[in-house]
Amino acid sequence: MRITDVQVIVTCPGRNFVTVRITTDDGVTGVGDATLNGRELAVASYLQDHLAAQLIGRDPLRIDDIWHYLYRGAYWRRGPVTMTAIAGVDTALWDIKGKVAGLPVYQLLGGRARDGITVYGHASGATVEETVEAAAGYLSRGYRAVRLQSSIPGLDSTYGIGGVAAAGAHAYEPADAALPTENVWDTDAYLAHVPSLFEVARRELGPTPRLLHDVHHRLTPNEAARLGKELEPFHLTWMEDPVPAEMQDGYRHLRHHTTTPIATGEVFSSIYDCQTLITERLIDYIRTTVVHAGGITHLRRIFDLAALYDIRSGSHGATDLSPVCLAAALQVDTAIPNFGLQEYMPHTPETDEVFPHSYRFEDGLMYASEEPGLGVDIDLEKAALYPYKPASLPVNRLRDGTMFHW
């Protein structure tokens, strides 16, 4: 069996997605997600101009060899563009291997470790009361975990808040232009507000629902330690991305000052980004993804390292990752011993039509496809109906105009 064709498909059924579709001489096809939100065309070019020709004629079943060929052979290693491109290829190869074996990918990863995948939804609102009401709605639909984000008084916009968020769509949308929108941020207002959100949430929702919160990399280590300490009475499942990802030592400071569990890693692209955080047990959940951390092959290595230190998975799963990524994530989630949570945000009907799939949500749990491979595909005719649209994620400035973390 040899690879005969590598297609790179860019489509925008509401959001931009990059998909790798690999075909073999036996007519077997596999798909992989290669979407890097806001930088999609950089990855598409990397795939089309640098990787596609190198894959023709190779044995698609030699997944690990091809992974190292693309990683070590590039010399310029790691980084989000490179690792997302490799992920697209790697995931497509696992899809092919599962189809050849006649098994869902999770069976090739060691078999089922759990019956279903616990996912969390996104509850948000313009007020604390609206946010808690949205969270109650998720719990009534069977969710066992909910992330809460509430508008901050005095700010025109807040990360994680949007008019369609409660319906399951992403709480922010990229602007339909190359220039990003600019938001204003105030750390003091944020720190004063968040504890009151969870005080009300625990009073209204009770002690057992798993509640989460995303800081989105916006605090200093000391500010994050303060917030974590103030949230301790409300027993969060995790506080996500409390400090900028580059500030690895900040997690050590956090560990010394709060027992609120910490989750991070959605912007990490390799095991080396999180090696210290894992081996020193500075975090509780690692949120790396199939699409941004080198595919199933490399993500499994990250999770295996984390398992040695009793750190659980909590993979990112926003709607800027295509159904191909979600299908692959669920296959991994089903098999690993140290699964924690999976983020889940339903895609739009248009996206689901472009990417037909057989994974499913039922009573708060997700279930990976039982079809051979990943159980997801791309409809090329429907994908062609939605051409790429230039789009950018927002940027943040402080009240005095200083550029800040978004």
What does this structure look like?
Strand 2 and strand 3 form a beta hairpin. The chain has two domains: 3-103, Enolase-like, domain 1; 108-372, Enolase-like C-terminal domain (TIM Barrel), CATH 3.20.20. With 406 residues, it is α/β, with parallel strands linked by helices. Helix 5 crosses helix 6. Residues 163-171 have low confidence and may be disordered. It has helices at 40-55, 63-72, 80-101, 105-108, 128-140, 187-205, 221-231, 249-257, 271-279, 295-308, 323-335, 349-354, 380-383, and strands spanning 3-11, 17-24, 29-33, 117-125, 145-150, 182-185, 210-214, 238-240, 262-264, 285-286, 312-313, 342-343, 360-362, 365-367, 395-398, 403-404. It contains 13 helices and 16 strands.
SSE ordering: EEEHHHHEHEEHEHEHEHEHEHEHEEHEE
Instruction: Using the coordinates shown, work out and report the CATH topology of the largest domain.
Output: TIM Barrel
Binned, the helix content reads 25-40%
Please state the structural category.
alpha/beta
| CATH architecture term of the largest domain | Alpha-Beta Barrel
Shape: globular
Give the distance, in angstroms, between the N- and C-terminal Cα atoms: 46 Å
Largest sheet: 10 strands, mixed
Low-confidence parts:
163-171
Computed CA radius of gyration, to the nearest angstrom: 21 Å
